[in-house]
Write a structure and sequence with these properties.
Layout lengths: L10 E4 L5 H12 L3 E6 L2 H13 L3 E6 L5 H15 L4 E4 L14 H29 L3 E6 L12 H21 L4 E8 L8 H5 L1 H9 L12 H8 L10 E4 L9
Parallel strand pairs: 1-2, 1-4, 2-3, 4-5, 5-6, 6-7
């Protein structure tokens, strides 16, 4: 039986891949056979992830990338194409968060969140789609949203707004780019422990949130592997415009 999740011969780009979930996405795609461009601003960090990939027998490429800078995005795609060929899979994972009151948030903080979480996703998706359309082979773009783009929580207004925009962007781009055989889908993780939220989830307020998750736990990176491979591979060939919550049932819990 054909392995629908096999990514052999495919080239993938993962942004924000220097650590956390991005690192895990890169390792997962490489294990499935893809040649993975590991991208982030910290060159030493992405080089370490590439070393993990190659030590495990996979193929990786370290790419310096600032998603908020269109010139940096274009240069990254040029570098990937020169080494690994056209990009078939994009995981738009780069993101930042700021815990601040909406009354007190500065313009600088708001812009910082939007530039990475919204503009950055747009820049990478658009540049990738332009090249996919020109190559004529289609591809898969996976935007990493959040359940806070579907439901909200206090103290993270800019983050929630940015991720809600990513959810709607995913649907809009899927509609426009289906004619080019480009699928655009999203994953909306619930609470996974990362460097962004580690301190908060360990706090009393964070533990109260975990107690409201129907499965009574935060997610493990392995919980995202199935949805990621579904959307990246031929297993999800008839899926576009979908945003999949992976959250232990949290988004459906109104408590």
């Amino acid at each position: 039986m054909t392995n629908l999740f096999d990514l052999s011969g495919k080239t993938a780009l993962v942004t924000g891949a220097s650590g956390g979930l991005g690192r895990h996405f890169a390792l997962t795609l490489a294990k499935a056979g893809a040649h993975v461009a590991v991208a982030a601003r910290r060159e030493d960090k992405v080089a370490a992830v590439v070393a993990e990939i190659t030590e495990a027998g996979g193929k990786g490429l370290a790419i310096s990338l600032d998603v908020a800078d269109q010139g940096s995005v274009a240069a990254a795609f040029d570098a990937i194409e020169a080494t690994a060929g056209s990009v078939d899979i994009i995981v738009n994972n780069a993101g930042v968060a700021a815990r601040d009151s909406a009354l007190d948030m500065s313009e600088e903080t708001f812009d910082w969140v939007m530039d990475t979480n919204l503009k950055g996703v747009w820049n990478v998706a658009q540049a990738g789609a332009q090249r996919m359309a020109k190559a004529g082979n289609g591809g898969s773009i996976i935007n990493i949203a959040s359940i806070l783009g579907i439901r909200v929580a206090k103290g993270v207004s800019a983050y929630a707004v940015s991720k809600a925009a990513v959810v709607q962007m995913t649907k809009a781009l899927a509609l426009e780019w289906a004619r080019y055989k480009i699928r655009v889908n999203g994953i909306a993780p619930g609470y996974f422990v990362t460097d962004i939220n580690r301190e908060f989830l360990a706090s009393e307020a964070g533990q109260e949130i975990v107690e409201r998750i129907p499965q009574r736990r935060t997610g493990n990176p392995v919980d995202l592997e199935g949805p990621l491979l579904l959307l990246a591979s031929d297993a999800g060939a008839y899926m576009t415009g979908s945003v999949i919550p992976v959250d232990g049932g949290h988004v459906n819990n109104s408590v």
